[in-house]
Amino acid sequence: MGILEASSTIEVEAAVTRCYEIISDLENTPKWQEAMVSAEVLTKDSEGRAELVEIKSDAKVRTVT
Questions:
Q1: Cα distances (Å, whole numbers) of residue 64 to 8, 34, 43, 56, 61
Q2: Is the dihedral of CA 18, 16, 47, 51 positive or negative?
């Protein structure tokens, strides 16, 4: 069976710091990440950043033509 690969690129008109704020807000990721059911931060570092996160994803196999 062959290896399937995909990639995508998008340009975001926002400051890098704002992008990092959004992407590092793991507990709210399920609001915009379709396959993610939940994300719970279990431990944080001394600066309040997530260290250990439990993520539940919808990993059902789907039919693709």
A1: 18, 17, 37, 23, 9
A2: positive
Give yes or no for a contact between 31 and 22, defined as CB atoms under 8 angstroms apart: no
- Distance (Å, whole) CA 5 – CA 8: 11
Q: How confident is the model at residue 46 (pLDDT cuts 50, 70, 90)?
A: very high
Q: Which two tokens stand for residue 64?
A: 């693709």
Residues listed for the chain: 65
In terms of pTM, does the model score above 0.70?
A: no
